[in-house]
Write a structure and sequence with these properties.
The protein has one domain. It has helices at 12-18, 133-137; strands at 2-3, 23-27, 44-56, 59-62, 67-68, 77-81, 87-92, 100-102, 112-113, 115-118. Helices cover 9% and strands 33% of the residues. The strands form three sheets. It has a six-stranded antiparallel β-sheet with strand order 1-7-6-2-3-4. A two-stranded antiparallel ribbon has the order 5-9. A two-stranded antiparallel sheet has the order 8-10. The protein is mainly β. A hairpin with a 2-residue loop joins strand 3 (44-56) and strand 4. It contains two helices and ten strands. The longest helix is centred in the first third of the chain and has 7 residues, at 12-18. The protein is globular, with a radius of gyration of 14 Å.
């Protein structure tokens, strides 16, 4: 998990509270260095709106689930933003030791997308992803 600068010193409970009414966008493109940086190569797969409050205990409360997939791809990260678009955090997504797990390892246009696990883990860095040759040509590091 990568927290936006404004949330860097928050506790898990404060982050959960900040997620009330937030938007979660699932992406299949390389994750930016920080949540404040824009997503350059838009691999936007799905979008969830969270309820207020966003959690009941440890269970995430999306307003609607499942949601329809918006594109084809493999989820790599999830960006959480406030209703006004201000970033809260970027969460790792996919199989293995990730912050967010979806019901399927890939998304398709119109297919149902649902979150099966969502963890707020302070101090757990998002794993590095192998960089494709195309991303290196676009100036990735």
């Amino acid at each position: 998990m990568k927290l936006a600068e404004a949330y860097a010193k928050c506790t898990v409970e404060e982050i959960k509270a900040a997620l009330a009414g937030a938007t979660l966008r699932v992406y299949s493109c390389p994750q930016p260095e920080k949540p404040e940086k824009p997503v350059l190569r838009n691999g936007f797969l799905a979008e969830f709106m969270l309820a207020t409050p966003a959690f009941e205990g440890d269970a995430l409360l999306p307003v609607e689930s499942p949601v329809p997939g918006k594109d084809v791809g493999v989820p790599l990260f999830v960006r959480a933003t406030q209703a006004d678009g201000t970033p809260i955090a970027d969460f790792s997504a996919g199989p293995g030791d990730m912050d967010v797990k979806l019901a399927s390892v890939s998304c398709s246009i119109g297919s149902p997308v649902s979150i099966t696990k969502f963890q707020v883990r302070i101090g757990v860095a998002n794993p590095g992803r192998p960089m494709s040759p195309r991303d290196r040509m676009l100036g990735g590091s």
